[in-house]
Amino acid sequence: MLVAGLIAAGLAAAVHVYIFYLEAFAWTRPRTRSTFGTSEQEAVTTRPLAFNQGFYNLFLAIGTVIGIVVIAAASEPVGSGLVLLATGSMLAAAIVLAGSDPTKARAAAVQGAFPLIAVVLLLIHLAG
């Protein structure tokens, strides 16, 4: 379960790095606007907020990767705590997104699927 959980966590981190790129660097591009359902004017107006939000996603990805490295190199309990904190935060953000705007359910599923799998598998591993 540990290896599968860490693979899911790594995929969650990769998704969040991609979201970081979209929010921090490609926010006003037509394809990104289409992905997030924003007009050109909305994208220009919200660019500073999206830039900041992008970094939140990057930091969660970094925390996940650090946790994976710590598990592999030194300490499973410490690394597992880091991975669970980061992926749990990703999952919580997806739940908030889906709950705050049901039209964003697809985006929430993309954002939260790998973190959910990672959290469940890591908790099963730790309980066993």
UniProtKB/TrEMBL annotation:
Keyword Transmembrane helix in record: yes
Keywords: Membrane, Transmembrane, Transmembrane helix
InterPro entries named among the record's database cross-references: DUF1304
Pfam families in alphabetical order: DUF1304
Transmembrane intervals: 6-27, 55-75, 81-100, 107-127
Stored PANTHER family: BLL0914 PROTEIN (PTHR38446)
The protein, known as: Membrane protein
Species this protein is from: Microlunatus endophyticus
Lineage of source species: Bacteria, Bacillati, Actinomycetota, Actinomycetes, Propionibacteriales
